[in-house]
Amino acid sequence: MEGLYRGPKEVWHNDDEVSADLAGCYTTDLFTAFAKQWIGQQVRADAEQPFFLYLAYDTPHAVLELPTGPYPAGSGLAGGLQWTGRPGAMINTAAGLPDSFVHPDYRHATFGDPEAEQQWPDVYKRYATAVRRIDDCVGDLLALLADVGVDEETLVIFTSDNGPSIESYLDEPIRADFFRSFGPFDGIKRDCWEGGVRVGALVRAPGLIPGGRIDAEPAQFHDLLATFADLADIAAPARSDGVSLAPTLLGSGSRSPSTLYVEYAVDGRTPAYAAFAPAHRGRQRGQMQLVRMGDHVGVRYDVAAADDRFEVYDVARDPKQEHDLADTRPDLHDMLAAQASRVRRAHPEFPRPYDGEAMQALPATDAEAAATEKVAVVVTEQLISRDPVLSELPWTPTLAATRSSSLPRRESVNVGEPVTPDVTAQEWTGELVVPAAGLYDFDLVGIHHAVLRVHDAVIVDEGSRGSVRLAAGQHPFRLSFRGAVVPRLMVRHRS
């Protein structure tokens, strides 16, 4: 439906015939009504067949359009939003005046000194009404799950993609500090301060997940793919950067630490809100980078070169990031800077000022090996699977990920042991020992679809070739591929 909506007080438009059918539809209502109809179709077709729905609401956002009227009474199958399918009125709220309804709780809301109260400006009434509408919509969807009998075993995750936004296509600007939507943090959308990137998530599955718990261990969106694969009892793609959150959700076992990394380039500055630390107000953004390990975050703004220093914060004790530890804890700085070099690879279409930086090696543990004159590839573990399910997946699977499932899909074998033809997937882990810093090319002879990671970065992505800059020393790798063929891993050094 991209491109169908123009802005407040205007209607759906497109050259497609659908435009007339969607005229007057509020997008949040439209998405919800269609989602309800689609879920009902899935359950009616096969109540035992799992389904997956990604529902990305576009409000509250820059348009800040108001609904056409109040939320319909009731919820679920018999009430709330409904998909009618009638031309010109595809949903039951496609009536009334577009961009007209302000929720009663906010229509006369005031702020300021009790003796000199002021009415909320229109833009904030719009924002609050949009948020309230999403709350109604999610409640409607949850009621539907109960009505069709799949509430207990359906996993619902509600979260946001970034901190509060200040875009407004209206004449009236909007500020994120009116509602203080950034919470106890500094920064908003497009910032790499905590207020720009840290968001909450609500997770619900009454028959699977014990309720009433709060987990403070950080995760990132790529963890959801690994989590969904784990809960579905299939191997996650080896190219996925995520780890399964199932142990945390199910309250059993332990999960691996998430890879937490952000890089973002954008013009503009952090707003100069009084609630923000002075060092953050009006901060030039430019190229930004963030990496987190444990409670410590390394962040740098307006990066010009690979050797620009990170600011280092203990965000558990200092959520506003006011006390930079980079000078007093150089060990933390160096650890975070090293990790930042190990989680990414350069891409020619998206140049960054630190692309020429080599991945830092592990701390030296074997001086003799590190001083070798030739590249050494040391395989320390080989995992194989004979599970035929893996051959049906459209991706190269990972075998070494921690799984909450009781059905492991691998067995350990000795390196070099003959592999029988019924092997469906393999995974090797080990170390690369390189004698000098430089650009290294990797060629996998004998296979065409593999995933090779060096440290946490994907170097070969569902192919057979890749390149990366490495510092001299030891670098862990993981190679995942299909079938019984044992490939040759060739590494060539370019100066």
Automatic annotation (TrEMBL):
Family matches, as Pfam families: Sulfatase
Occurrences of domain Sulfatase N-terminal (ranges): 23-234
Gene3D superfamilies: 3.30.1120.10, Alkaline Phosphatase, subunit A
Protein name: Arylsulfatase A-like enzyme
UniProt lineage: Bacteria, Bacillati, Actinomycetota, Actinomycetes, Propionibacteriales
